[in-house]
Amino acid sequence: MGSGIAPPNHPGNQSRDQSTGDSSEQTSLDDYADAVGPTNRQGKTIDERRQRLEQILDEEIEIVESHQFGSFTRGTMVGPLSEDSDTDVMVVLSREKHGEWEQGENGSRNCLRAVKRVLEKKYPNSKVSIDRNVVSVQFSDFTVEVAPAFSDGAGGYKIPDTYSKGRSWVRTNPRGYKQRFEAVDNARGGRLQKVSRVAKKLRENRSIPVSSYHMEVMAYDYVHNHPDKNASTEELVEGFVEELPRRVSRGTRDPVNGDRLDSSMDQSNRREAIRKAKTARRKMREAKKCRQSGDTEGANEKYGEALGEDVD
Fold first, then answer.
1. Residues 98-102: contacts with CB under 8 Å, at least 24 apart
2. How much is the mean pLDDT over the chain?
3. In contact, 202 and 241? CB cutoff 8 Å
4. Per CATH, which fold does 176-306 belong to?
5. Tell me, which fold does domain 40-172 have in CATH?
6. What's this model's pTM, rounded to 2 decimal places?
7. Which of 1-5, 63-67, 166-170, 199-203 has the highest mean pLDDT?
8. Which of 47, 52, 188, 312 has its CA 20 to 30 A from that of 276?
């Protein structure tokens, strides 16, 4: 894409419904946010893959309900998709049939191992592995992360946590966060989705060592608390990147359960993340000056530099 932001007719913007209206009414960062999401065809593939995985698991493990969750359902996934891109599926297990996993010694680890065995049989040519709370199936086009769960009876779920010696289950409420995210996004005219995608693309382009979810929640918190509900995408992106070094430094909590999202970051990664965020901030300040002076072409160029589109 070069160092600038793609115009509306850039190839990256094709094969997608422009749900935000006529492109002439959109700005460069609006179009960029649209361009970096998955295409409609990729979205269909993700949904079909999810359904197939659920069918496979249901043949050997009793499932009472299942959900697609994560960035795809919130509209914050970024592309182009690759084997490192992931989408999330939760399969809620029958407590009557599989309650020993919830209560037994090493139950959470045994549960993940059982899910892994089922998927390995069906996908012998794919890499299937356990990663803390999920079983990952790495396909050539993207990765699906399957989280087995039990209902907690209060609208949330318990998922395995192998970081606690295989004996614990941790609470999660993906629907709670999705509801909050959608409420803010609707109140801001869909601009939270856009800012989140731009933020994630910045993370990816500049290899900022924070998780994708961590970056999204920082964007959510910034937009949620911004005093101007009519702020443009440019203003929100500029403001978010301006605050990014400080947000990385001070830490971020999950908006639903209050857990620290950066608890696993060591000091080296935090320093690197802050350094790269400051580089983006410096370029974004230059973009803001161009925008305010009416230099649209210069602003687009600086936006691209700030977001790391010139980084190989």
1. 98/61, 98/62, 101/148, 102/150, 102/158, 102/169
2. 87
3. yes
4. Poly(a)-polymerase, middle domain (1.10.1410)
5. Beta Polymerase; domain 2 (3.30.460)
6. 0.80
7. 199-203
8. 188
